[in-house]
DNA sequence: CTACAGTGATGGC
DNA sequence: GCCATCACTGTAG
């Protein structure tokens, strides 16, 4: 991990940088054809180039230029390329008990029973809170069993974001409790705290098919990517790539269940529930964590 | 680039 | 059940 602790404590407590970063990424991806210089971008955002450069680098650990390179098709293909098959064969010793090993952030998970799923959250108490994160405001939702939801919103968009999530388990009781959710937020977004000793507890609430897809996603290590059809193969339904896409899109715990590491077969970023720009940001941020 | 077909899970009716 | 809707993919013009 090249990102040092100081830079992380800079970004994580107040996620203000993300707004700037988001606009930079957006600008560049919209106008990549005319290769805008740092200067032009800075001018458009009403900031000085040096200032912009600094904020961006603090956020990603990567210069804007290097970052962009990390999110190109080329790079995406490389993420996909390396040893196609072995990747998903990595053991996932989860079961419903013992701590399993999972990608970079160690996670234990359990699935909800079908009964609980049918009840659509009936009898479940979900506590939630908004917290700043490197990717904008993060909405964290937890139950007694562990983390159940993670979503993102830009400033001012909290309400639709919450409703999006709450609509998935309409019968649950929702309690605002950011004191309870805060520890989760800080765990998740600080790579320094990713360790196997204290795995993050996660509870997957979804249909059987969805849960299988999400479990597959959890097997993708940091800095790697797979295609929707890889995932389809992994769950034993090679032709169901489209259905897989839909299931990936319904992932309630984005980032932790790394749905941003699922790409189209061409390496193109096909879609993202919380905005394609955010998907780029995550991939670029991760690229910086590895190097 | 667009169009279309084949695809499987899901949710509303 | 039926039908529309997808964060898909391959083929054709």
Describe the overall structure.
- Its EC number is 2.1.1.63.
- GO terms for molecular function: DNA-binding transcription factor activity; methylated-DNA-[protein]-cysteine S-methyltransferase activity; sequence-specific DNA binding.
- It is a single chain.
- By secondary structure, this protein is α/β, with parallel strands linked by helices.
- The chain has two domains: 5-81 and 278-290, no CATH class; 87-268, Arc Repressor Mutant, subunit A (Orthogonal Bundle), CATH 1.10.10.
- Helices cover 45% and strands 15% of the residues.
- The protein has a four-stranded mixed β-sheet.
- A hairpin with a 2-residue loop joins strand 2 and strand 3 (136-143).
- Helix 2 (16-30) packs across helix 4 and helix 2 crosses helix 14.
- Residues 1-13 and 85-103 have low confidence and may be disordered.
- It binds a DNA duplex (13 and 13 nucleotides) through helix 12 and helix 13.
Mean pLDDT: 84
Question: What is the alpha-carbon Rg in Å?
Answer: 19 Å
Which CATH architecture of the largest domain is right? Orthogonal Bundle
Instruction: Determine the CATH superfamily of the largest domain.
Output: Winged helix-like DNA-binding domain superfamily/Winged helix DNA-binding domain
**Which residue ranges are poorly predicted, with pLDDT under 50 across at least 5 consecutive positions?**
1-13, 85-103
Shape summary: globular
* Number of DSSP E strands: 8
Helix content: 40-55%
> What is the CATH topology descriptor of the largest domain?
Arc Repressor Mutant, subunit A
Question: What is the strand arrangement across the widest sheet?
Answer: 4-3-2-5
Largest sheet: 4 strands, mixed
β-strand percent reads 5-15%
Q: Provide the domain count.
A: 2
CATH class of the largest domain: Mainly Alpha
Q: How many separate helices?
A: 14
Oligomer: single chain
